[in-house]
Amino acid sequence: MSTEPLPQSPWQAAAITGIEKRTPRVTSFWFEPSRPFVHRAGQHVDIRLTAPDGYQARRSYSIASAPEAKPGIELAIERLDDGEVSPFFHDVAAVGDEIELRGPLGGHFVWEESDGGPILLVGGGSGVVPLMAMARQRTSRGSAVPMTLLYSSRIWDEVIFRDELIDLDERRDGFELVLTLTREPARRPSDYSRRVDAAMVMQALARSPEAPTLAFVCGSNAFVSAAAQALIDAGVPAGLIRTERYGV
Ligand SMILES: Cc1cc2nc3c(=O)[nH]c(=O)nc-3n(C[C@H](O)[C@H](O)[C@H](O)COP(=O)(O)OP(=O)(O)OC[C@H]3O[C@@H](n4cnc5c(N)ncnc54)[C@H](O)[C@@H]3O)c2cc1C
Questions:
Q1: Each residue of 37-61: pLDDT tens digit?
Q2: What residue owns the CA closest to ligand 1's atom 51?
Q3: For atom 43 of ligand 1, which residue has the closest CA?
Q4: Is 79 exposed, middle or buried (0-12, 13-18, 19+ CB in 10 A)?
Q5: 106: helix, coil or strand?
Q6: Is 5 in the pocket of ligand 1 (CB under 6 A)?
Q7: Residue 222's domain is classified under what CATH number?
Q8: Which of 113, 187, 228, 231 is buried most deeply by CB count within 10 Å?
Q9: Mean pLDDT of the chain
């Protein structure tokens, strides 16, 4: 298995090896690329679907699995009812099917343990996916870097990776989970029930021993703009904030 990103990231076939529903709207798909690669936490792949008439649709999906996780890679795809590609995965794709993908892609929205810490992760909805890869990598490497995940979801049942995140939080090993639900009351005493704002970011930051050395913000365009502004208002220097926008 190569440990380097594929040169020019050519398209390759990848078989679907597993499917698991995460929430009512999000399902995880495991892919086994025909030429396996090792990614960095935060990277994504491009998926290409080709219809019988030759029409092609391409979309990007973050890798949810830690680089060490084997076999294959996990993508967590949210169903947009009026979308083109995500309903295909939810309604049509089956274990054993082959699709085309290329990657790993992206070199900016990537966490390495050598970046130091504390690390602040801020995700909205499916924007938690690349942050999950970072949290999983921290755990699988036994890293002591303090990491706080502030994760905004509409309701409790839409919190992707909920049980795994709560397990990580309960380890009390320097990983802190702060959930905020925008359309339901908070379920845990230390969580919130409103949109991400500067006061919430300041309280989340207070859980770490020092100011963050890096912050990663991921989600829809609107979420990333609002959350990045909340970080700046909370005193996080703009130069420390890395963003990944999923569009729309
Ligand atoms: C780096 C990156 C990583 C990503 N990672 C993930 C991930 O981990 N999980 C995930 O679920 N998604 C992820 N996304 C988003 C993903 O790439 C797709 O955008 C998403 O799945 C929607 O694709 P779709 O084909 O289903 O919908 P699309 O057909 O692209 O439609 C998306 C929305 O746009 C609207 N729309 C489409 N065309 C128009 C138009 N002409 N005018 C106005 N509105 C329009 C549709 O109604 C729909 O609501 C990521 C995006 C990026 C850039």
A1: 999 999 999 999 999 999 999 999 9
A2: 246
A3: 248
A4: middle
A5: coil
A6: no
A7: 3.40.50.80
A8: 231
A9: 95
CA nearest ligand 1 atom 15, residue: 246
Separation between Cα atoms, residue 65 and residue 75, nearest integer Å: 8
Decide whether any atom of ligand 1 lies within 6 Å of the 61 Cβ. Answer: yes
Q: Which ligand 1 atom is the nearest neighbour of the CA of 87?
A: 26
Pairwise CA distance, residues 108 & 121, whole Å:
14
Would residue 171 count as lying in a domain? yes
Report d(CA 248, CA 235) in Å as an integer.
Answer: 27
Nearest CA to ligand 1 atom 21: 86
* Counted domains in the chain: 2
Domain boundary residue, one of 64, 81, 105: 105
With bands split at pLDDT 50, 70 and 90, how would you rate the model's confidence at 8?
A: low
Question: Per-residue pLDDT tens for 132-156?
Answer: 999 999 999 999 999 999 999 999 9
pLDDT in tens, 57-109: 999 999 999 998 877 999 999 999 999 999 999 999 999 999 999 999 999 99
Region of 115 on the Ramachandran plot (φ > 0 left; ψ -120 to 50 alpha; else beta)? alpha
- Assess whether the C-beta atom of 84 lies below 6 angstroms from ligand 1: yes
Residues 145 and 193 placed together within one structural domain of the fold: yes
Q: Whose CA is nearest to atom 20 of ligand 1?
A: 86
SS3 state of residue 53: coil
Q: How far is the CA of 8 from the centre of ligand 1 (A)?
A: 24
Q: Is 244 in the pocket of ligand 1 (CB under 6 A)?
A: yes
Cβ neighbours, 10 Å, residue 55: 9
